[in-house]
Design brief:
Shape: globular
CATH superfamily: RelE-like
Strand order of the largest sheet: 1-5-4-3-2
Largest sheet: 5 strands, mixed
Number of domains: 1
CATH architecture: 2-Layer Sandwich
Radius of gyration: 12 Å
Order of helices and strands: EHHEEEEH
């Protein structure tokens, strides 16, 4: 299956806050997600949402048909609270 990547409008803002090494790691993770988006851990209580843990950061994404929606990337202490605002 060919997956299409799309990002939440605020995802670009999240990227600007990250340091270069974190961005490089995130780039690798997004490549792995695109290869097989179901390989990562689903978020409990949220159908179709997945999370990837790296360092002290979390990337949350959603699957919708053939689209992978990148929702948020942030430090763990903020990511889930902000995610709830974005998925409404």
């Amino acid at each position: 299956m060919t997956w299409v990547l799309k990002a939440h409008p605020l995802f670009e803002k999240d990227l600007k806050k990250l340091d270069k090494p974190v961005k490089e790691r995130l780039k690798e993770l997004i490549f792995r997600i695109k290869e097989d988006p179901n390989r990562f851990k689903p978020l409990r209580g949220y159908t179709g949402l997945f999370r990837v843990r790296f360092s002290n950061f979390r990337l949350v994404y959603a699957l919708e048909g053939e689209i992978i929606w990148l929702i948020i990337v942030d430090k763990r202490k903020r990511v889930y609270r902000e995610m709830l605002k974005r998925i409404k």
